[in-house]
Design a protein that fits this description.
The chain is mainly beta and about 575 residues long. The protein is about 15% helix and about 35% strand.
Length: about 575
Amino acid sequence: MTSFQKDKGVATKGYCRFTKNIIYAMIAICSYIYIMILPTTVWATTILNKEFTAVIDRMEEGITTNYNFSNDAEYDLFVMMLSLGGKTPTNSPQLFRSLEEKRRMHKAGKFKKVAVYPGEPGADPGPVITTQSINIIPGATGDGAGTFRAMGMATYEGGSPHTYGMLTLRDKDSGRLLVWEKLEDYGSPINTVQTKAYGDYRNVEAFFTGYYLDKDGNMIDFSEKLSAPNDLPVIKNEAPVSSTGMVSDTCVVCVNRTPSQQNQCVYGKDNNTNAVKFPVKGNIAYSVPVKLDASRRPVGGAAVMYLVKNTGGGCIAWGPKDDTFFSDPQTVFSADKKNLNWNFAPASFGEKQQCMDNGNVINFTLRVTTFDDNMNMMPGILTSTPPTVPGPNWQQVSTITLIVGCLAQGTLIETADGRAMPVEDFQAEGEKVRTGTGAVLTVMGNTVGDEKDPMISITTEYGYNLMLTQGHPVVTRTAGIKLAKDLAINDVVLTREGAQKLTSVTRKPYKGKVYNLMLGISGEPITTDNTTFFANGILVGDLRMQETFGSHSANRLSEQDILKKLPKEWHRDYFNYRKAKKQ
């Protein structure tokens, strides 16, 4: 760490004061910190002064928040975290101009703390902060000490043009920064950074702070801290699980669909509503009793259950949390207060979010935090977003794949023998279709349901017309797979007569049934790009492709797209960043 400090010009037992500026906007970031204990030794010597320590101590554990830059100590702490990463007014002029402007706004009384969760009393409209707690995994050293590893993650729905984060570990008694690591990137929707330090993990605190640019080019600051608990409970998940029981396999959840075959959806086989719902069942075993009040609810306890797209943190669906979680009749503490069981059959995550398209891969998280009689924190977490190494109070669960995309009733599907068959007539396994690659695949079955959202109607230059749901994948010649909602006039799609431009793309209200097919049985040549069929003469994807497409949608922005998204005043910062990376 010493050489790193010298390279970045970081002073020990002190800090440098710079000025900068950020246009105030609401936070729409999802920041995560995971912490693990592993056998490595890393130390640093920088010490936070009392003012900085006081700022961090005032922050609420596990809650992502933003700074009030009218407070000198908060302002100087943020600037120090920038300087640790080598940020200066010279190499990041717009960053510091933005910060100074934001500080002037805060001093003029325009600072407003952003609500933590959507729908809370007094919450601002629009995007808000989401959080996930630190996770602790014990080491194997005999004296109770070990290596403390943390991972910070910052995401923004659709991809932020620019993200910067500084992840630090500090000794809470001395204020010493044990280690720090920087993340900085342009054009990636998910950014992660990891760091580690040797010491008694119960006295180490992780602090993750930085900024990102939102969709309007505003620079938004964020910070989160969490400490290690004294007790590490053991958490177990019973639901949701994938059809194979393998954590590595996704769990298919159907929304507003009734499949003709039972094996297409793990959950939602009979879900003919637009709500996202599936069972959530599990338990936590504690080594010491949980502190409960007279109604047997945990004192200071908190529970958060949510779904978030793996392409970023701005698209969130909330399940039962806090009082709703603990007051459920199936959420029960044992008589000795050392076991907690829950069983939501099913848990509801509300109406399907518009941003959760068909085939999207969704990360599921359940975080349960309780305290012992001495108010020591005892967290447990189930999540599809894994840290490097699992532990007793953390368990990885399968991702969720939503199946919601379909074709309008009456859509004609071309079979392998050249017939045109209405999509609703594919009721059982046996019919065969010819794919866009020329392979012949068997239809396993179809899904059927009602569609509440407007449908997408597309027309090609030679008159092919198709009505399909917004999340249905369509094969294009130049852009690969695109969701119907992302199609535009002049996009080139593939038809049974070759490539054709789209001359019309419109949204239309639709009342009626919608259908989709799943292609391919065991022994057939199934690949990631050949489960396609011709619908009204236009090549589209099946259910398998919807699942595959969702898992590949978090692509990094190109430099051209980055410069398009970045306001011109941020271009100099970007070019300086690129220059520094090449050196």
